[in-house]
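Budget justification, computational time. The allocation requested in the original proposal was used primarily to generate structure tokens for proteins on the priority list. As evidence of use, we reproduce two of the resulting records. The first is shown immediately below.
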Amino acid sequence: MDIYEDLLCGDCKNFDPPFKQFLNTTHDGRPITDFIEVYFHPYILPIHINAFTMTQLTPYIWDLNHDGEVNAAFNEWAFEHQLEFKGPEGMAMSQYDVIDKTCHDTADRFGYTEAECLDVLRNGTYEQEIHKVQKYGTWYRVYTTPGVFLNGVMIEDIPETADAWTRFINRYLR
């Protein structure tokens, strides 16, 4: 299963908790994650002008920690702070303001210092990585977020609760 999320997307923020609750369920006494593999991909909607800068931390955090839970914690942080980056305050920010705020607010939470974060974002270390992921999502025909694909097929009617996810996936596990 491939999940495409935009850190500044309100629908992604709403999607995340029930989906993660579903990922902690079981099927036939075994963790559901024994039956499905889930890959989260960043995908930036053009309307979210500050998401590109923030999203560059996603591969950086992975390279530092190789721990999906740390990346998930960063996504949750971004979801909690969406309005600071996309509301009126966020719309008035320059890219440099976004870099400074993101690095200041996330320093020492996800495996890097403020100085290391500033270096990565100011130097554009992961810009090409994000461009590649964006192209991959476009090739896959992601047009909105969250974009959810099961075995390469987009799920049009995304389940909204953990129970609905369980019912949806159980059809494929019989």
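The second record produced under the same allocation is shown here.
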Amino acid sequence: MLGRWSKLEKDFQSKDGSFDISKIPDIFDNIKYDVQHNSKLGLKNTIHLYSCVKPLADLIVPQEYGITEPEKVEIGRMILSPLLRKLVADLKVASTDDTSDNPYRLNPSYMPNVLSPGRYVRTRLYFTSESLIHSFLNLIRYAGLCNTGNPEDESWAEAMEYLGSVREAQYHTQIVLMMYEDQHLPDDDPNRFRVL
């Protein structure tokens, strides 16, 4: 732990006395870790350091993924391309009735009250880093990645306002995308499936 903090101090303040603010996210991650996991060591001033660096991190961390909206979109597209291709492919598979690649079904003995116990389970889990989560949120906000198409949709406006308030992706951050099917629409209607 001493080596970790010594390196951070050396990297943060140069010999001429100037500071490298790109190290603020590293300082924040380290102090947060120590406050959460090393509090039994009786480290002094950790809470004070945390309260000083948190507002700086809230300002700097989101800027790591672009400052202007076009920069945020471009950075998001560059670093998320493989994940987005995978998501699109999985959504296409989930929107078809072809179950040849999916042997998983709900087990009716565990779910006696489910209306369609024989349906296929099409859940996908993706594990990634905080940087990709920030970039993904930027694409949702600025590139219309999941736009409902209705500017008067109050739920959507509320969700976008909430996304704008997210400063930090904590450990175990989750983003849930759900695809809904409107079975009243024709099979070839582009609005038959909606991702929320």
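A brief technical remark on that second record: Strands lie at 179-181, 193-195.
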